[in-house]
Amino acid sequence: MSEVFFYFFSVLSIVFAAVAVTSQNIIRGGVALLGCFVSLGAVYFTVGAEFLGIVQVIVYGGAIIVLYLFALMTMDLASLKSEPFKAFLVAAGGLLSVVTAFLLLTGGMVLTKDFKPSISGAEDLALPMFFKFLLPFEVVSVLLLIATVGAVAIGRRES
Q: Which regions span the lipid bilayer (predicted)?
């Protein structure tokens, strides 16, 4: 039964991601992105990674969407001009998508042969993150803070 939910939420997350990328309305895209994050959290729940599912919903479904909306509020959307259609960019994006899908599928096949999940709970994640990898964790958090301040500064810059 969990396989049915896994495939259901996987397809749902792909549909929401496609809507988020292709939507002309930026608010609709944000709501679709929220649906994608929540359905990805449900995918984590179906495979038994409850902590990752909770983190996915709280961090990405909550914080990232708030950051997204905050960035939209600081931007002057009226000054944005629509870009002309560039076929070579679409072709490059399509090629990158195909290569990424190929690598994910072939890498997934290699990983699933001997894959035994060893991390599923909060303790399994917290111990390495806060003891073994504390410095990289803190460096990444400072970088994210710098990126947030930079995004606000760029968004508020007057032209």
A: 6-23, 30-47, 53-75, 87-110, 130-154
pLDDT tens for residues 41-76? 999 888 888 888 888 888 888 888 888 877 777 777
Alpha helices in the chain (DSSP H): 2-22, 26-46, 50-55, 65-74, 87-113, 122-127, 134-156
% the chain with pLDDT above 90: 16
CATH node for 1-77: 1.20.120.1200
> How many whole angstroms separate alpha carbon 34 and alpha carbon 51?
18
Please give the pLDDT value at position 26: 80
Do 13 and 82 touch, CB atoms closer than 8 A?
Answer: no
Count the alpha carbons within 13 Å of 46 in the hemisphere toward its beta carbon: 16
Rounded CA-CA distance 120/47 in Å is 9
Q: How far apart are CA 33 and CA 68, in angstroms?
A: 10
- pTM > 0.90: yes or no: no
Taking phi over 0 as left and psi of -120 to 50 as alpha, with beta for the rest, 48 belongs to left
DSSP summary character for residue 58: I
Would you tell me how many other CB atoms lie within 10 Å of the CB of residue 74? 14
